[in-house]
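[recover] target loaded
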């Protein structure tokens, strides 16, 4: 469509002026013509953004009625008053609720039983009152369940202010720590709080230790990552025995660990960073389990004794495999969970640690996604996971690791008469120019003939919301020019294809035309 026909008035887009700025680094110079836009308080930046907004409104003005209709229909499929599945941590059950007409969640807990009296921990709607923007960042209850550390962003810049709430008295501490990022962690003394701060580029780069009751100026700087390729985060193992300071770039990582019972001690380095080597760890009793790509592009699983976890003591638990990627691990008191991906599909491998006996969790559909849910307890035989597919709404299951029984705890409601039996999902394969086999996930309405003339909707990055998916299917079904709407939310290949960093993006995009041509005769 010619640009001039976008709007009857032939509205022209604003043209951003160029003001060359030279970036000099490592004896290399780069010219950035739009560096001036970094200053969000500059009147010229604000004026340009306002002009862009005005242009967008003008171009989209003829679609206002359609936008309203689509929004109303999608909203009608969402259950506004909803309850999350409670998860147990210690003697409390924690959960959230959304209510009709309110934009944000309310956080609750019950002590000892789901029949106990409901206790409100935090109402995001109250915190958001009067703010143009609001987002909750961190939300961490102390080990003794008496304090809540949480952070809020009211600018939209992912720059959070950290607070501590006394859950016994309901009073918020006068302490407020600005410019923090998402990750925080409690020491096991219930008085020490670790948090990260961000630099000018909003990269988390410093880790601080804060003692409750003391002024922020007395906080101890634990680590400063000066290399701007790395993001810093702080976490705690499920066993609650160790704090983990993780440093990650696109292709390299490094982990430091600390006994959570001794939060004033220094962190210890597990393995120094090595260019191109990634690793992460989980704790189980006297062992660290280590997932790494060192000499294993699809990752392998190692272990090392906590008493001497140096690299020379690492032992292989699951060797590298050419066709299967280890995407993550979780440890519980009696089980090791290994998340894998084979031929593009996720798999969940369960190993009983006392016997070494293994099994894979079985899933009923040809294409799906599965994610680990809220599993804060270490001493448990229950694994909570979320399951969804192109036709099955997001569903939460509790899976008994010993008996292999599962219980559906909740299926996300999709209002408006959605009937999953009216749709079919399939798994297909396409051949790339280099001969690689690419797995594809497809969905379409029953009764549609595969004539080779049906329209194709590609969805290359990430899942589509159920309400959007249903609307897309129905639009295509009712249009006279076509009867089927297909999509591919899982555009994946073997990890080795994309080993060279950002090469992955262009490599995948270049494959799309050939994949489309291989599908067209089938649809």
């Amino acid at each position: 469509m010619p640009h001039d026909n976008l709007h009857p008035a032939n509205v022209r887009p604003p043209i951003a002026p160029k003001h060359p700025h030279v970036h000099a680094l490592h004896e290399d110079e780069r010219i950035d013509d739009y560096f001036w836009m970094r200053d969000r308080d500059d009147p010229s930046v604000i004026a340009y953004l306002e002009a862009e907004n005005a242009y967008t409104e003008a171009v989209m003005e003829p679609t206002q009625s359609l936008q309203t209709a689509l929004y109303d229909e999608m909203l009608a499929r969402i259950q506004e008053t909803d309850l999350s599945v409670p998860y147990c941590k210690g003697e409390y059950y924690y959960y959230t609720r959304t209510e009709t007409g309110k934009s944000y969640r309310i956080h609750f807990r019950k002590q000892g039983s789901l029949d106990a009296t409901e206790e409100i921990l935090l109402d995001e709607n109250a915190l958001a009152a009067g703010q143009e923007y609001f987002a909750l960042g961190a939300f961490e209850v102390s080990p003794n369940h008496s304090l809540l550390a949480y952070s809020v962003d009211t600018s939209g810049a992912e720059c959070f202010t950290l607070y501590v709430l006394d859950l016994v008295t309901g009073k918020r501490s006068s302490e407020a720590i600005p410019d923090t990022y998402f990750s925080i962690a409690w020491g096991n003394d219930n008085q020490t709080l670790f948090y990260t701060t961000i630099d000018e580029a909003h990269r988390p780069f410093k880790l601080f230790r804060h003692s409750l009751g003391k002024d922020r100026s007395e906080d101890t700087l634990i680590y400063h990552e000066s290399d701007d390729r790395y993001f810093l985060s702080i976490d705690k193992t499920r066993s609650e025995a160790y704090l983990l300071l993780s440093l990650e770039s696109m292709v390299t990582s490094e982990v430091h660990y600390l006994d959570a019972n001794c939060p004033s001690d220094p962190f210890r380095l597990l393995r120094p960073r090595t260019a191109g080597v990634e690793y992460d760890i989980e704790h189980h009793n006297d062992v660290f389990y280590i997932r790494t790509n060192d000499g294993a592009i699809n990752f392998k699983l190692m272990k090392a004794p906590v008493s001497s976890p140096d690299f020379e003591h690492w032992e292989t638990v699951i060797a590298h495999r050419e066709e299967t990627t280890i995407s993550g691990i979780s440890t519980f008191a009696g089980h090791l969970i290994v998340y894998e991906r084979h031929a593009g599909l996720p798999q969940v491998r369960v190993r009983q640690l006392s016997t070494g006996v293994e099994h894979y969790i079985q899933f009923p559909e040809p294409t799906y996604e599965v994610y680990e849910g809220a599993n804060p307890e270490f001493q448990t035989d229950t694994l909570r996971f979320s399951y969804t597919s192109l036709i099955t709404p997001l569903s939460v299951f509790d899976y008994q690791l010993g008996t292999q029984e599962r219980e559906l705890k909740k299926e996300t409601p999709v209002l408006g008469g959605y009937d999953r039996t009216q749709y079919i999902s399939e798994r297909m394969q396409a051949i790339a120019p280099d001969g690689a086999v690419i797995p594809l996930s497809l969905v379409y309405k029953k009764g549609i003939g595969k004539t080779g003339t049906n329209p194709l909707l590609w969805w290359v990055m990430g899942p589509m919301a159920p309400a959007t998916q249903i609307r897309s299917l129905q639009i295509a079904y009712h249009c006279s020019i076509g009867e089927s709407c297909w999509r591919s939310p899982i555009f994946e290949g073997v990890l080795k294809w994309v080993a060279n960093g950002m090469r992955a993006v262009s490599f995948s995009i270049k494959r799309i035309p050939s994949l489309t041509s291989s599908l067209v005769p089938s649809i």
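[recover] notes: The CA atoms of residues 367 and 395 lie 15 Å apart.
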